[in-house]
Every structure is written in structure tokens, then in C-alpha cells.
Amino acid sequence: MTSLVPRVIGPLVLRSAATFPAVGIVGPRQSGKSSLVRILFPKHKLVVMESPDVLRMAVQDPRGFLDSFASSDGAVLDEIQRAPELMSYLLEYIDRDLQTGRRMGRWILTGSESLLLSQRITQSLAGRIAMHEVLPMNALELAEFPVRRGDGRHSLTRAVLEGGYPALKAERPDRATWFDTYVTTYIERDVRNILRVGDLSAFQRFLALCAGRTGQLLNLAQLGADVGVAQSTARAWMSVLEATYIVKLIPGWYGNINKRLVKAPKLHFIDTGLACALLGITTETMLETHPLRGALVESWVASELFKAQAAHALRSRIFHWRDQNAAEADLVIDLNGKLTVIEVKSARTVQPEWARALERMTNALPPGTSVERVIVHGGGDDMPALKGTTLVSWTRVADFARDLFASGAPTPKSAPKKKAAAKSAAAPKHVKRIVKRKSTRER
């Protein structure tokens, strides 16, 4: 296992397993999906669909493959996107479980390609599966790892440079080698599997150029021209990066403002450690003086928001705002009828003029709009207050994001009493301790 550090999303996954016959867990490679399901479902039989013999059996004899789990408590089908046709057969097994009253949560599906997986689910498992995203670890989870000799000083630059992949924190491999292997594996397996890309070197250039545009408005025509491919090809490749959780595009927010606004999406790498590796940034000193430092910090903050949103199973409520005069807000959270408008600054000293862009936007909103202005900065908690604006130190971004989305999280549905009691009784003791430990920490 990569890590035994409990994940924030763990209790939510367990609740879904108590009320749905199947649970889907998707996210990028090496984000900790397999470790999570091993911890939460230790009695389930784990099969890795990337193993050639397992995949061959699943494709050639799907019913025989699924019958092999009849006597077990359940099954974890890891990297299920390798056998998407299995979804149609799984439907009849899930319906049979429902008819015979077998306990919920018997089928756990994990995958690294949301696009293929969600298409199959829409066609066959709708209403029978709860879907969750497991992204790389957030700052609160990474802080659970023990400090070791040789660890650098905790800083914003270091947080951006390291990113959130659990293996880099738990196993401490050489970062450059690890990311190089990660990119190679990702391109040769996931990209080739989805697009059948012939020129993988062109796609790798495309990936590196995207890293250079993190935190910026997306211009597919220019991006395609820089790589030497058509805009349609660049659009298809960008869809792959989104589907495999490498990048996320946040749309422009334009509700209730009578102004000409830019509606182009903004590109953010979900893991800034990967973005730094693709840019050739290997040390904190290099990042401190790099021209993209501000954009990378903005993507790091956006990533913490993505992770908090996923941990509460919320649909995307994250936007950016920019008008034709270049007035902008880096991030806009539209949740529960309230806008949280965020400006991100990497500098350590708060400046009053930082709030001006936020004031331009909020002043354009209709009277009575509920809005909070927030500046995330690279300094500590001892910065002087700004009137009408909340200051959030980078050290508290993960807490801020957790609390923000917790206020909009839906109330989980309760399972029928008998099934809920049975699920609780069947839950392994160490899982109960993990849930209890997390609950205690949140209080």
C-alpha cells in the first residue's frame, strides 16, 4: 500500500457503500484509490484489471468472471476502464443482489478514466452506483505523514513543488525519476488506450505546453499551433487530460452581471508537483524566481478547492471571472446562493490594492447579492486586516476549502435501519477507528 494515512473522503465512501449496491471511485493514477479501498473494504476480493490474465478472463467470459465472486463478501474491480463491456453484465448481478437482499456495497469499481467509466455507468448502472472522485492528497492529509530527517522547511513554495501524490510522501523516491516514469506510463497506457495517438512525442509536447499555461485562460487555437496540430486535435487531447484528471477547466462565471465578460475557461493542473516537473522546475530556488510562480500558486489553491469539493461529493461550483477590461477574480465559488470571490497572491506581504479587482466585480453585482471577498496570500496569519475582505494565509487554505464546501454538502441519505445496522456490524474495527479519528479531528 502506498499510504495508511486516512483520507478525508473515506467516511463518505463508507456511507455510500451502506446505501448503494455499487460504489465507483475515479481519479488520476497514483492518487491513492487502491490504498483507500484496501483500507475501507479489506474483506472484498481485489482484482486488478490491468493484469493480462484477469483482463482476458473478464472479456472472454464475463459471467464466469463475475460468478467467481459469489462466495466472497464483495469485489474490488481495480482499473475497470480496461474492461468497460463488463458494466453491462454487472447490471444483472447487481439486480440479482437487490432481489435476494444481499448487503449493499458488494461491488467497488475504481478507474483512472472518468470519461469511459461514466459513459458506461450512464448506460447501464444509473441509480445503482454512487460515484466519488479521489484526487491527490490535500494539505491536511499530507500533514498526517511523519516528519523525517532531511525534510525541508514547510513553505508555500515547497507545497507547490511537491504536489499531493501519496507515493512521493510515503516512499520518498527521487522526484524527477518518479514524475518521468509517471508521465511515460500515463501516455503509453491511458492516452494510447483512449485516443490511439500515433505520435506520442507530439502529445508529450502538448502536455508540457499545457503545464506552461496553468492558471491561464485556455486558447486551443494557439495551443494547437504551438504543438503543430489542428485545433480539433488539441480539443480532443485536452478532453483526454480532463478525463484522466490531469487538468481541470473551470468556466467563466457570468451570472447576473450586465457586462461583457470573458467566457473562455481557465486551465488548472490538478497537481502542481506534476506541472512543475513538466516545466523542469526541480528545486524551491528555481520555483521562487520562476515567471510562472504566481500561476502555479493559483493552481495549487484551485486544487485544494477541487479536492474539498470532491470530498463532499458536490458538482462543480468553481468558476473564474474576467471582463473585457481585464478586471478579474481568480476563483469564484457559487454555492447555496452565495458567491465567494477569491484573489490569489503568492507574495508574503498583503497590499491594500489587491482588493480592487474584487471590488470591481462585487460592485457590478445586483444589490442584495450575498458575496464574500477573500484574498489568499503567501504570508502568515499576522497580516493587517482589509476592510470588507477576508484574508486567508496559504497555511489555512485546506481548512478554508473544507469549511466552505461543508456548508453546501448534501445531507447523506440514511439506509434502511436493518441494512444500516448490518453494515455497521460488518464494518471492520480498524475502519471504525479511522472514521472516529477523522470525526474527532474535524471537531
What does this structure look like?
The chain has 443 residues and is α/β, with parallel strands linked by helices. It folds into two domains: 10-134 and 414-442, Rossmann fold; 139-406, no CATH class. It has 20 helices and 13 strands. It has helices at residues 10-19, 33-40, 52-60, 62-67, 86-100, 114-124, 139-142, 156-162, 166-170, 175-195, 200-211, 220-227, 231-243, 272-278, 284-288, 293-311, 356-364, 397-406, 417-426, 429-442, and strands at residues 22-26, 45-48, 75-78, 107-111, 129-133, 216-217, 247-250, 266-269, 318-322, 328-335, 338-344, 370-377, 390-393. The strands form three sheets. The chain has a five-stranded parallel β-sheet, with helices on both faces. It has a five-stranded mixed β-sheet with strand order 9-10-11-12-13, sandwiched between helices. A three-stranded antiparallel β-sheet has the order 6-8-7. The longest helix is centred in the middle third of the chain and has 21 residues, at 175-195. It is globular, with a radius of gyration of 22 Å. The two termini are 28 Å apart. Residues 412-443 have low confidence and may be disordered.
